[in-house]
Amino acid sequence: MSDTLADNKTPPGPSDGLAVLESRRSAAETYGIPLAVLLEITHRCPLQCPYCSNPVELDRGSTELTTGEWKKVLSELAELGVLQIHFSGGEPTARKDIVELVQHASDVGLYSNLITSAVLLTKDKLAALADAGLSHVQISFQGNEPAVADRVAGLKDAHRKKLEVAKWTRELEMPLTVNAVMHRQNLHQLPDIIQMAVDLDADRLEVANVQYYGWALKNRAALMPTIAQIEETSRIVEEAQARLKGTLAIDYVVPDYYALRPKKCMGGWGRQFFNISPAGKVLPCHAAESITGLEFESVRSNHSIAWIWQNSEAFNRYRGTGWMPEPCKSCEFREVDYGGCRCQAFALTGDAGNTDPACALSPRHEEIFKQAERESAASQNRFLYRNFAGGTLETEESRDNRQDNRNGA
Ligand code: SF4
Ligand code: SF4
């Protein structure tokens, strides 16, 4: 017999109001379940961003959860007390059932956010999503004009399409977040990207410096900003935050290679976040499958999501502070940053149980920081584009083709 909570109770509907939210909150507190969950419903995507946060080993379409399986997941999450779902990918609209899934999320009382590259959306499709109850749209931008943005995305005409979809989003009266992933080759456009977000009537702008694992680690030499760029970025963001207060909220993620202490990655392993991969793996972080030697449970198993969250070996391995080595073990910040990022520790030291080398107290910090500094100053600008074939290196020819296509050649 399955031990899923959803098997035993009827999910609450959206009309039940405050009482439902309160009962959800207390259910979530019982299990310590996050109130918002990221669903990566597919890894398929028409773009090829060299910093993509998907794993290098992408889940093929044939392994993805079916419509029925995703609906069951949504019902179970609602029953557990989750309030919000982020439909992400890959490109979530690459799934033909995206409207059906958003409708089901609404039916079981979940707020939904679409995290999209936008290039597959038509106005009719976006309107259908709004009618199905989509409550928020987040569009990723690779720059503020086609010459840079389409090259980073690895897709001609992508930037124009994104601007169009952003406009439709606001016409349909849905809130809009602009997500701008920043790196050495587009940081010079930051002031214009901020203005673009204002012109698009976005509510929020995320200025997210690349985090270096997975595809981004493979592209680190082409993406790593210089220290001078980061100092200038911080100045620009602070000035814009003050100037645009009340008009545009700006979130800022610094690249932790240049910080003294690491970020509190995912709020701490297994503390505030989980996501579900296209094939149904329940993960403490979207890059977690890059750590070899950890087995992640699937929603296709006989275990409920609540059981996986609370009891699975992978979630408990780095939960809390008991797993920590020195210098974290006796550090006053151990419950502030929880030792940083496990995926980064694995990628850079070969052991996810080590202190994140982004921390200045890590014995590997200096060596890694110096390497990043050298890479930022070098002129290796070619991208390894993300795809199912393990990546394709940018060539002069592929760059020129995109330029020709843009010019209508
Ligand atoms: S980062 Fe780029 S390639 Fe990766 S899923 Fe998002 S849009 Fe697609
Ligand atoms: S030693 Fe560990 S706990 Fe202390 S600041 Fe560095 S990463 Fe955080």
UniProtKB/TrEMBL annotation:
EC number: 1.21.98.4
Record field: catalytic activity: [PQQ precursor protein] + S-adenosyl-L-methionine = E-Y cross-linked-[PQQ precursor protein] + 5'-deoxyadenosine + L-methionine + H(+)
Single GO BP term: molybdopterin cofactor biosynthetic process
Radical SAM core domain segment(s): 31-243
Sequence positions that bind [4Fe-4S] cluster: C45, C49, C52
Pathway annotation from the record: Cofactor biosynthesis; pyrroloquinoline quinone biosynthesis
PROSITE patterns xref list: MOAA_NIFB_PQQE (PS01305), RADICAL_SAM (PS51918)
Cofactor note: Binds 1 [4Fe-4S] cluster. The cluster is coordinated with 3 cysteines and an exchangeable S-adenosyl-L-methionine.
Cofactor(s) this protein cannot do without: [4Fe-4S] cluster
Keywords: 4Fe-4S, Iron, Iron-sulfur, Metal-binding, Oxidoreductase, PQQ biosynthesis, S-adenosyl-L-methionine, Transferase
Highest taxon above the source species: Bacteria
Sample GO molecular function, one term: 4 iron, 4 sulfur cluster binding
Classification via InterPro entries: 4Fe4S-binding_SPASM_dom, Aldolase_TIM, Elp3/MiaA/NifB-like_rSAM, MoaA_NifB_PqqE_Fe-S-bd_CS, PQQ_synth_PqqE_bac, PqqE-like, Radical_SAM_PqqE_MftC-like, rSAM
Transmembrane stretches, start-end: none
Subunit structure: Interacts with PqqD. The interaction is necessary for activity of PqqE.
Similarity comment text for this entry: Belongs to the radical SAM superfamily. PqqE family.
Purpose of the protein: Catalyzes the cross-linking of a glutamate residue and a tyrosine residue in the PqqA protein as part of the biosynthesis of pyrroloquinoline quinone (PQQ).
Protein name: PqqA peptide cyclase
This protein's encoding gene: mftC_2
